[in-house]
Every structure is written in C-alpha cells, then in structure tokens.
Amino acid sequence: MTDRYASFVRSGAGRTLVKRLGLPDPPRLRRHTPGDPIVPGPVLLGAATGGRLAEQAGKVLTAAGVELRDPGAVESTERFAALVYDATGVTDSAELRQLYDFFHPRARSVLPSGRVVVLGTPPDECGSPREATAQRALEGLTRSIGKEFGRGVTAQLVYVTKDPDAGTWTSVEATLRFLLSGRSAYVSGQVVRVGAGTAVAPADWDRPLDGQVVLVTGAARGIGAALARVLARDGARVVALDIPAAGDELAAVANEIGGTAVQLDLTAPDAPARLAAHFADRHGRVDVVVHNAGITRDKTLGRMDADRWDSVIDVNLSSQERINDVLLERELIPAGGRIVSVSSIAGIAGNRGQTNYATSKAGVVGLVESLAPALRGRQISVNAVAPGFIETRLTARIPLVIREAGRRMNSMSQGGLPVDVAETIGWLAWPASGAVSGNVVRVCGQSLLGA
Predict the structure, then answer these.
(1) Is residue 337 left, alpha or beta, with left meaning phi > 0 and alpha meaning psi from -120 to 50?
(2) pTM of the prediction?
(3) At what angle do helices 54-63 and 166-180 cross, to 10 degrees?
(4) Most buried residue, 198, 264, 378, 431, by CB count within 10 Å?
(5) Ketoreductase domain spans which residues (predicted)?
(6) Is the Cβ–Cβ distance between 231 and 204 less than 8 Å?
(7) What is the percent of the chain with per-residue pLDDT over 90, rounded to a whole number?
(8) 54 neighbors 31 (Cβ within 8 angstroms)
(9) Active-site option among 5, 85, 186, 357
C-alpha cells in the first residue's frame, strides 16, 4: 500500500510545504539488507561513573566490527551513527545529571536513522530505593529522546541483570546488534530486559537461525508471509501454516522460501495434536514457535454478537494456549527453544470497536508474563511483539481519515512495514537471544497510543 503523503513530502514542493506549515515529516528509514554493517558510521560509547557494562559492551561491539569513539577524544563537529551509554553507575537521582552532560551536547550529532541505546539495571534488582528510582527514570529519558531527535533516530533502554552470565552477554550482543542495525527501523521508545539464561552465538551472524526448525502460523499473507521470508533468509527451516482457504497463497510462500506448507484450522479440536504429530514425524522437534495467526471481527461491544467475540478470542489467544500446551507436554520444544507471540498496541491501549480483539491481544501479553518464568527452568524463552500501524491489506481497508491518523501519530510519522515486525520476531527467535524473555516489544514507530 502506497503512502502518498510520504511520497509527496519527499518531493521538492512537498518539503517546502512541510517546513512552512509544520506538517509531519516522515523520514526515510534505514532498513536491513543482508551484508549491511551493523551501523553505517562510528558509535560514541559513554558511561556514568561506576558503570559496570561499558567495558564489556565495548569489547562486544568492537569484535562485531563497530568503530567506537571515546567521548573524551572526539571533535565537537563529529557525527555518529549511534550513541550508546552505560547508565548502570547512576545510583541516585542527582547523578542523572551525567545523562544530561552526555546527551545534551550531542543531540544534533546523530546521523539520520541513527540509534540511541541506554544500558541500565533492572529497578527490581537495585540495591536501594534511590538506585531503583534513578534507574526507572531512564525510561522517561529514552522515550523522550525517541520523540525529540527525529529524522528516523530511535532510542531504547536495555536493562541488564546485575548477575550476568555467559548467556547474558551473548544476548546483550544479540540485542545490540538488533537495536543498532536497520532491523529495528520501526522500533523506538522500548524497554528490553536481558536476564541470565542459555544463549548460543551463531557461527555466522548473517544466518543467526541456521538449522532451526520454525513454525509460523498465519503465514499466507501480510506479516506472516514477511515472517516466513525473513526467518528463511536467516537460515531457518520454516513450516508455514494457515487455514485451507488460504492454501494457494500459503503454497506460494512456502515454495518461494523452500519451506513446508501446512494447511490447518487452528480452532479445530484436533489441531494441536495434528500439529504436534507433524513435527514429531517430520523434524523431531520445533525450535521456534511463532504465533502470528489472528483475525478481527470489529463491532462496538454493545452491538457485538457472541460469535464475533468467541471467534476472535479462540483464534488470537486460546489456540496459542492449546498449541503451547501440547508441544510442551510432548517435549517437542527443546531446551533453547523460543515461543514468540504477536500481540498489538490495541491490547495495551485498547481500541474503540475492538473490545474482542484488544481483550485477546492483552491476553497474549498475559501469556508472556505468566509463561516466561514458568519455562525458565526448561531454558525456553517466551516473548511477544505488539505491532502498531503496519501497512497491510487489512489497514488498507481502514477509512482514510483513521488510516492517516494511524500513520502520523508516531515518532516516525509513517506506518511500518510487515518486514519491521518480522525482523523483530527474528531477533527474539535467535538462539543468541535466549536470555531475553518475558518481553513485549512494540513495533509501532513509538506510537502516541498506550505506554
């Protein structure tokens, strides 16, 4: 679907009008192409006094081929592809001044589509209420930077456990690689938690899913088809699933990526058992389960019939629970496995006319929050993504005024693409992301809706 306003803004006449009237100015976003470096320029790495992560983060980034700069040895006119700041040394609100001293003189030094990443300590792991207060304050800083710097610049906060192990550092590297790269083009203002856990770095970071068996539900079109393509590009053996009515489109996607197509209605009583039998017979396991299948049946609650309510809850939420239960009970998801569910900002902020949909997607958040700690002992991570306005055939049918509001009411002033959701799920699916669990990451260009 073409964003005609964005195309007009990028013309000569459009740019003049935007500046004169103060209209939204959608930037060109840097997205990932295989073979791209992580960042297209130098990265400035700074740290608060007593920061515990900067040294190791510097080693990780240098080994990844990133050119680092020291804040004490740069020219005032130098520009950077990213700013990375270790704020773990901030243990009192007065010490937040160090963040101002680092970011204030460099607010205009970040290149277009640049990145800002702040590293912190999870507030619930802090040694005192003052430290927890200061670390929680970092969320306001990063979310505000994401809205202020403009030009496609994103800003994120990564909380890293106080008791890191080897798996933690592998997942910190995976997270930095994702957040600094073009893969995270439409992710901004997010908080990611990296704990302790099992994580395995790939032999080739250009194929981080090499050899992994991945299930993608709802794979025939839109976000699901983009998911299948991205995961296959990253080395996965993709099992693409959708309803029989979408069989032709599903087969086309599976053939394109060299994957397998499975036609199955997930709401059928025997669907979980049939799916489990497929993986047991064909692969012996499923390393990554991506619950993408979903439907909408919109009506205001007072006008909604029971069938609309039941069908949305069943497809979007209950089917995920049933499939998880059977795959886990039969131990088909091995240690090091991943479960990634697709929620929505509607599940976080609510949405008029989508009570059923918002309920189901909030339930997905609950699934992640409850299942992640329960599966930690089995070394299986559970996360979700929450897309905002994504350019699909579904959003193309939204009335013009509402569609334009959805596109412009975020820090990027534009809708995201299905590939943006796919890249985020890909990162959460990587074996290297094993210590990233219990997260709900919004892919919404930092939408003004919700938290």
Answers:
(1) beta
(2) 0.95
(3) 60
(4) 431
(5) 212-388
(6) no
(7) 88
(8) no
(9) 357
CA neighbor of 161 nearest in space, from 436, 368, 439: 436
Q: Would the CA dihedral through 55, 57, 60, 66 be positive or negative?
A: negative
Q: With CA atoms as reference, report the closest residue to 39 among 135, 117, 147.
A: 117
Distance CA 343, CA 360 (A): 8
**Quick one: 307 exposed, middle or buried, by C-beta within 10 A (0-12, 13-18, 19+)?**
exposed
Which secondary structure element, helix H or strand E, spans residue 119, and what is its range? strand 110-120
Partners of residue 229 on adjacent β-strands: none
- Those residues whose C-beta lies under 8 Å from the C-beta of residue 73, and which sit 6 or more positions away, are none
Active site residue 357: yes
* DSSP character at residue 382: E
Q: Looking at the predicted structure, is the pLDDT value of residue 74 above 60?
A: yes
Other Cβ atoms within 10 Å of 314 Cβ, number? 15
Among 239, 201, 432, 266, smallest CA distance to 338 is for 432
**What pLDDT does residue 18 have?**
66
Give residue limits of the domains in the chain: 31-194, 213-443
* Cβ–Cβ < 8 Å for 259, 283: no
- State the pLDDT at residue 1: 63
Asked whether the beta carbons of 313 and 360 are under 8 A apart, the reply is: yes
Task: Report residue 14's pLDDT band, with 50, 70 and 90 as the boundaries.
Answer: confident
HEC letters along 160-209: ECCCCCHHHHHHHHHHHHHHHCHHHCCCCCEEEEECCCCCCCCCCCCCCC
Task: Tally the residues of the chain.
Answer: 451
Token look-up 């809850």 returns: 313
Q: Could you report the per-residue pLDDT of 164-184, keeping only the tens digit for each?
A: 999 999 999 999 999 999 999
The answer as to CATH 3.30.420.40 being correct for domain 31-194 is no
Strands (E), 283-362: 288-291, 338-342
Alpha carbon distance 10, 320 (integer Å) = 42
| Percent of the chain with pLDDT strictly greater than 70 | 98
Tell me the average pLDDT across 398-415.
Answer: 83
Amino acid at 216: V
Closest C-alpha to 264, from 256, 272, 253: 272
Q: Write out the CATH class of domain 213-443.
A: alpha beta
Judged against a pLDDT cut of 80, whether residue 22 lies above it is answered with no
Compute CA distances 363 → 3, 315, 343, whole Å: 32, 12, 8
Residue 89 predicted with pLDDT over 70: yes
Predicted confidence (pLDDT) at residue 383 exceeds the cutoff of 80: yes
Sorting pLDDT into bands at 50, 70 and 90, what band is 82? very high
Quick one: which H or E segment has residue 230? Answer: helix 222-233
